Amino acid sequence: MTVCGHNIPAGSNVQMSHYIMARMEQFFKNPLTFDPERFLRDEDKPLYAYFPFSLGTRSCIGQQFALIEARVILAKLYQNYDFKLDPTQSFEILDQLTLKPKGQCMNYIYSRQ
Ligand code: HEM
């Protein structure tokens, strides 16, 4: 099989990298800019370049549940607490299959009550 001019022999193990695809200008405008609004429901998203829950027949059956759960948890947290990032922390990435901040995500948390 040939994909974009590359020959893929039968039996090859093919993986897709979110990390690389999310940084490609052809899929995301200004890919290195922190812009959560690009993921708003009505924004145009490249269909096959954004697949956190995978795509196709074996994609995540918990996707809708996970998205609702995340909204509820975030809403509850922001209703009850104010968050302030510790300004001294670095923004280096720790790459361990999934990506996370190297120095964790240190916050000051203030109760709103
Ligand atoms: C942010 C949360 C979640 C993410 C990012 C996520 C992501 C994924 C991905 C990428 C797959 C495909 C794995 C593959 O290709 O082999 C998958 C499959 C699956 N997920 Fe999730 N998932 C999440 C939450 C959930 C929840 C909450 C449930 C259940 C309540 C769930 C149940 C499943 C199941 C059963 C499969 C296997 C589907 C199949 O093979 O037909 N997931 N998930």
TrEMBL record:
The keyword Heme applies. GO terms for biological process: cholesterol catabolic process. Gene3D superfamilies: Cytochrome P450 (1.10.630.10). Heme binds at C60. GO terms for molecular function: cholesterol 24-hydroxylase activity; heme binding; iron ion binding. Keywords: Heme, Iron, Metal-binding, Monooxygenase, Oxidoreductase. The keyword Acetylation does not apply. Its cofactor is heme. InterPro entries: CYP46A1 (IPR039983), Cyt_P450 (IPR001128), Cyt_P450_CS (IPR017972), Cyt_P450_E_grp-I (IPR002401), Cyt_P450_sf (IPR036396). Belongs to the cytochrome P450 family. This is Cholesterol 24-hydroxylase.
